[in-house]
Amino acid sequence: MSGKSSREARREERLQAESEGGREGRRKRLLQIGSAAAFLVVAAVLVMIVLSANHSSGGDTNLEDVGLVNRQLHGIPQNGMVLGDPQAKVKLIEFGDLKCPVCKGFSEEIIPDVIDSKVRSGEAKIEFRNYTIIDRESTPAGAAAVAAGEQGLAWSFIELFYRNQGLETSSYVTDEFLTAIARGASVPDIGKWNEARKSKLVLGLVRRTTEEAEKLGFTGTPSFAVTGPGTKGIEPLATPGSAGAIEEAIDGAR
Amino acid sequence: MTEGSSTSFPVMKLPAEGTLRMIATFAAAFGIGVAAYIAIADSGGGAPVCLAGGSGCQTVANSTYSHLLGVNIAAFGIAGYVLLLVASLLRGDAARMGGFGLSLVGFGYSVYLTYLELFKIEAICQWCVASAILMAILFGLNAIRMVGYVGRPDER
Question: What's the predicted TM-score (pTM) here?
Answer without folding.
Answer: 0.52
